[in-house]
Specification:
By secondary structure, the chain is an alpha+beta fold. The chain is built from six helices and seven strands. The protein folds into two domains: 56 residues, no CATH class; 115 residues, Glutaredoxin. α4 runs parallel beside α6.
């Protein structure tokens, strides 16, 4: 009995191209990974070390800009070193006349004189001086505005003819030796630059447009 020949079975294996990963050295420890796909495309993966360097550069740039902004702000006077032991108006040359006890009587004889009675070493009163700057400059009062730094031992009644209980800081307005008016408030708050501006308007002394 004849034996039938066996049929040969052709098995076609599917060609699969595995992704090949190659590593190319750049410099030192830096490496760039490349992935080859079956289409022959090469995809370059990001370099971790270069990314870290980019972050460092961004941080350095931000810090440099911050230092630059602070420097410009200091030049522009935004950040100011406050010394409460000194007068803001005198140190900035907004006014140049500090009145002393011995000079009070002679100064008051001048026409349209403003005496600002205040204290040193007080943050609120220092800030009031800063606020008064604009009113003084806008109304050209540099030659008419005097500052007096009071002490606990001062007798304000004898010096300026005001009640000892008068709250300070205050601004007194004299004309030819006579006390015309003073800047004061009805509440318990400290006077403001706007209160002085109102007094100037009341006596038609304001030069603002």
């Amino acid at each position: 009995m004849a034996t039938k020949p066996k049929k040969k079975t052709n098995i076609t294996a599917k060609n699969t191209t595995a992704k090949k990963t190659t590593t190319k050295k750049i410099t030192g420890e830096e490496t760039v990974k490349k992935t080859t796909t079956k289409k022959g495309e090469v995809k370059e993966q990001p370099n971790v070390k270069e990314t870290k360097l980019d972050y460092k550069m961004i941080i350095i740039i931000i810090l440099a800009l911050l230092i630059l902004v602070i420097g410009i702000a200091k030049i522009g006077g935004v950040f100011e070193n406050k010394d409460f032991s000194k007068s803001y108006l005198l140190s900035k040359k907004i006014i140049n006349k500090e009145i002393l006890k011995d000079d009070v009587r002679s100064v008051l004889l001048n026409n349209d004189v403003f005496i600002f009675i205040t204290s040193l070493n007080d943050e609120e009163e220092y800030n009031l001086e800063k606020d008064l700057r604009k009113v003084i400059k806008d109304n050209n009062l540099k030659d008419n505005f005097y500052i007096y730094f009071k002490n606990d031992s001062d007798n304000l009644n004898e010096l300026f003819g005001i009640d000892e209980n008068n709250k300070t800081p205050t601004i007194l307005y004299y004309k030819n030796g006579n006390l015309v008016d003073k800047v004061e408030r009805n509440d318990e708050k400290m006077i403001e630059a706007a209160d002085f501006a109102k007094l100037l308007d009341m006596y038609e002394l304001s030069k603002e447009e």
